[in-house]
## 1
Amino acid sequence: MNFGKRLIRLHHSNAILFLVLTLTGFILFSTTFRSVFPAIRVMIRDVHIWIGVVLCLPFLFYLPKMVKHLNTLKKRKNNRINLYLVLTILILLIVSGFLLTFHRDFAPQVSTGALFIHDFSTWFGVPYVIYHSITRSKWFKKLGKPAAPKRTLDDPIVIDDHNPIYTRRSFLKAVSASAIVIVFLPFIARWFRSYLPASGGTGAVIGEGNKLKPLPTPNAKSAPPIGGGRRGQFRYYTVTEVPKLNNDNFSFTIDGLVKKQNVYKWDEFVKLSRDVQVSDFHCVTGWSVYDITWEGIPLKKLLQQAGIQKGAKYVKFYSADGVYTDTLSMKQAMMDDIMVAVLMDGQLISQKNGGPVRLIVPKMYAYKSVKWLNRIEVISHNHTGYWEQRGYSKDAWVKS
Ligand SMILES: Nc1nc2c(c(=O)[nH]1)N[C@H]1C(S)=C(S)[C@@H](COP(=O)(O)O)O[C@H]1N2
Ligand SMILES: [Mo]
């Protein structure tokens, strides 16, 4: 088989792989899909990674032939630009994909950067590849005809049907490019906005769909936040509908193997004395938020006040969503920086962020940090949390 034919074959197999990568990538990225196939989420991630690896192989075979290929493109500037673009996108995706796969072995800053590059090259690469495959297809080439008859240098330049200012092909190219840009622009804009600093954080108390009274008065260390305000953006995750909490349906229970069981209503709960701490927040999918000032009740304090009974080995956390749970060993639960948090950067934690009350376990990946926390149960036997049941590692420690 000659080089050209092999290149075309390579294109077809790569196009299919790229399509599957785009689909699995979209499922992994989308926050709405978290509740759709939670059981196969880890499998989708592994498929995504392995297809990425498979896509590297033809690329490696191609590299030694690249010089030869470039020579055939000497007179075709557009094709050369296309080649460089595609190779740049591929290299960015492969390197950042590699770093994301093994991000637990690196500092969180590495995955923050890798995730940005992976998203960035996807948001620009996918529309570009779609454009490329449309405008290079036989179907499109047929549409683009008839081409103008070749002019010789002596002919006067006449603009007519055969020689329009824009050929039909370039007109169609412009149309497809604009259509693709129009479809993708809102997504790209939304993704890009998530990296801009949050607006409107002026110390006002926000709760969105949650309606709770009285509102907690922030500690002096919270407003203004001693951490200086968080850096980075949360991706709001939920595996259920977002629960709406108000004075009637809010309760906070501490029970199980404790000496004093307790069920707090909101007005009692806001009276508990709170501490302030600054910590970072890491999701195992690669994003982080840094220097968040949390105000809440240290878990250790709550447990000590309740009094631990003999035989108590684990602490189980429940969410008001009725589905999500996680556990810590008693020793882990006694770490000083675990917090039952009520305020973030001086504001009531918003509904989609897990408010009014969420758990914060700074030293572990955030799947431990149960949102809409409404019950703490001290137990004797281990319980496997929501995401651990679905393939997440039982070891959630973030490497420091
Ligand atoms: N109840 C509940 N808590 C949850 C989750 C969830 O889906 N439901 N997702 C976890 C995961 S994987 C992460 S990364 C963080 C996300 O917190 P955020 O939505 O406030 O960014 O919440 C954790 N706690
Ligand atoms: Mo996460």
Note: Residues 234-239, 283, 319, 321, 324, 353-354, 366-367, 369-372, 387 surround MTE (ligand 1) (CB under 6 Å).
## 2
Amino acid sequence: MNHFVSKNGELFCEQVAVAGIAREVGTPFYLYSKATLIRHFQAFDSAFAGIDHLTCFAVKACSNIAILNLFAGLGGGADIVSGGELYRALAAGVDPQRIIYSGVGKTEQELHYALEAGILLFNVESAQELARLQEVAADKGVKAPVSFRVNPDVDPQTHAYISTGLAKNKFGIPIDEAFDLYVQATGMENIEVKGVSCHIGSQLTLISPFIESLRKVKTFVERLAAKGIGIDFIDLGGGVGITYDEEQPPHPRDYAAAIMKELQGFTATLILEPGRVIVGNAGILVTEVQYTKSNRRTGMKSDQDAGLVKKFVVVDAAMNDLARPSLYGAYHAIVPVVEEKGAGREVVDIVGPICETGDFLARDRELPRVEQGDLLAVMSAGAYGFSMSSNYNSRPRVAEVLVDGSHYAIIRRRETFESLIEGETIPSGAEE
Ligand SMILES: *Cc1c(COP(=O)(O)O)cnc(C)c1O
């Protein structure tokens, strides 16, 4: 359920007409619904009300500080994967004691920064990272709270690029090797062993892989207990999918119920790292049609000709603004912001202005006929949308807008040409 609804053929975000925002803010832009963000966070978080838990929003899914601040206000924490994300989380007012740090490649500076900030947990992903963390913590004279990210070797049955819990993926420590590392870590002066974590992938539409990996983690925690190593936190990662098209992901309620049932008898605090399921359907990307064109084989003229190869709708948003279609072949529903009554339908490719054939938002998509100047809404773009955007083709990154009831606020202003070259210099030319 989200608050992007069509009234008499016109798309609204809560009580605000999307077309009105486009007139004032310009296109393209990301648009988020505060009511939807709150609703999704609470639906997820309250599903676990039966047990001691902490919902750490995966910052990489949608990193704007206004949105992180919103979740912090609802009692949420943050799952971060870089020093930059730590900076954002702190700037957004997230309690450091609700921040956990994942990722395979934490640098020495990043470890320093996170220790300084006093975060809740480091999800350590290798023996070398553990050694480095011990060194940095010793240097500071503190104890680093550690959870190891184990790789349970479970197939999440999702897209290959977003599956992370298979032995062949770069993430985590094979569950068998992890045991020795725990034993080793308990003997380290500046390491405090606190938890076990795993994250098997993203956009999962089944509960069973989560349960399969949780069972492996449970067995592992029991093995550790037998060795006298107690665990305060069990972290199950993120990964619950959303509906982009026809997918039928589990409802958080059912997901939570299945997990809580498995965890009966365990006293550890459960940590969850949801990203997509909270923000995915709470944001859209709004873009304007620049041109429409048809490509035909040479010598063929009319629409009826067999020579018609493709119709293209060229819009002002591109793969640098929303990478998912190009990167994963991902599907996003696309709808006109204002639908003309009785408009015929046609099958088109919706493409951006970037000089790459891979620059498309949708291919062979049936859409009501649109014209130059029409607005289109790319739905379900709240997760891995703006946060994955880049400046490729020297395109300033777009604005982000947050609607709250009948008002909206720009939570990130559109970049300018000046911001594109900020930090660049032409060397004075002196050769040494
Ligand atoms: C990306 C990521 C998440 C969030 O995944 P979603 O599919 O967006 O819920 C959680 N934990 C870790 C370690 C991640 O890398």
Note: The longest helix spans residues 208-226.
